[in-house]
Amino acid sequence: MAFMSSGNAVVDMMGSVSITGNIISMWWFKRILKENGRPNLLAIVILSDLIYWYRPWEMRDVSTGHVIGYKKKFDEDKLYKTYQEYADLLGEPKSAVKNAFDLLVEYGLVEREFRNVERGKIKLFNLM
User: How far apart are CA 11 and CA 14, in angstroms?
Assistant: First the structure.
């Protein structure tokens, strides 16, 4: 199948780049705010990452390329992450990550639940 041009060389080059990962809605910068009315960038990035994890992987038929199903990206019924994992990932203090989660929960954008989980012979307590 021949490549169809958009008519713009830069757009065509970008179309050939496979970009995956988080997506941030510009709307969030007007709605997810700190007390001073400015965007809460940490909460926005965390929300973006959570949405990435909950977007399904497409399973495709190798011969036809058609989508034949979807698969979740995590093993259990819910995604387990800790404040410390996000602190390490984003280079922010654990307390700032907790505050960002508090805001996302307050806005009703995420649900936070703590569980004790067994992974093989290892017991993990109070996982978020």
Answer: 5
Residues of the chain with pLDDT under 50: 1
**Strand, helix or coil at 41?**
helix
Q: Are 102 and 110 in contact (CB under 8 A)?
A: no
Please tell me the distance from the alpha carbon of residue 44 to that of residue 33, in angstroms, as a whole number.
9
Q: How many CA atoms lie within 13 A of 66 on its CB side?
A: 2
Q: How far apart are CA 39 and CA 103, in angstroms?
A: 12
- Measured from the Cβ of residue 100, the count of other Cβ atoms closer than 10 Å reads 24
Is 88 inside a domain boundary?
yes
Identify the DSSP state of 64. Answer: T
Domain with residue 110: its CATH number is 1.10.10
Q: Are strands 67-71 and 57-60 parallel, antiparallel or unpaired?
A: antiparallel
Task: Specify the pLDDT at position 1.
Answer: 47
- The per-residue pLDDT for 4 is 78
Which among 46, 3, 5 is positioned nearest to 28, based on CA atoms?
A: 46
